[in-house]
Write a structure and sequence with these properties.
This protein has about 140 residues and is an alpha/beta fold. The protein folds into 2 domains: about 60 residues, 2,3-Dihydroxybiphenyl 1,2-Dioxygenase, domain 1, CATH 3.10.180.10; about 70 residues, 2,3-Dihydroxybiphenyl 1,2-Dioxygenase, domain 1, CATH 3.10.180.10. Helix content is about 20%, strand content about 30%. It has 3 helices and 8 strands, in the order βαβββαβαβββ. Strand 2 and strand 3 form a beta hairpin. It is globular and about 45 Å long. It starts with a strand and ends in an 8-residue tail after the last strand.
């Protein structure tokens, strides 16, 4: 069995967050979705649990980070092509996200980023390993 990852993110407005990620093409696994949480299916091994802040707080004794003003993590998704990078970030922007950094083109790697409605940072990257410079 492949290892799966479930990324848990606190959100202020679950319906708005579901709509945002739905606009990016991600569906919810309704078996793990209710008024407190939504399980987004990124791939068959990657899931994002959107948890309303009070529910999320029940899983930690630490203070929640306000991702609109602080960065705790940057989530990075791979894409099959440069145009797929642009398409996903453009969808995020059209759905109400913002682009915190300009695109970066390293020749062998192209990346763009977006912030979701709660300020969580996401990078989308396409890498052409055949074009990587030799060490």
């Amino acid at each position: 069995m492949s290892t799966q990852i479930f990324v848990n993110l606190p959100v202020r407005d679950l319906p708005a967050s579901r709509a945002f990620f739905g606009a990016l093409g991600y569906s919810a696994n309704l078996k793990f979705t209710n008024d407190d949480a939504a399980c987004l299916v990124i791939s068959d091994t990657i899931y994002v649990m959107l948890l309303v802040e009070p529910f999320f707080q029940g899983f930690t004794r630490k203070t929640l980070c306000d991702a609109r003003t602080h960065t705790e993590v940057i989530l990075c998704l791979s894409a099959d092509s440069r145009s797929d990078v642009d398409a996903l970030v453009d969808k995020a922007l059209a759905a109400g996200g913002s682009e915190p950094m300009e695109a970066k083109d390293y020749g062998f790697m192209y990346q763009r980023s977006f912030q979701d409605l709660d300020g969580h940072l996401w990078e989308v990257v396409h890498m052409d390993e055949d074009a990587m410079p030799a060490d």
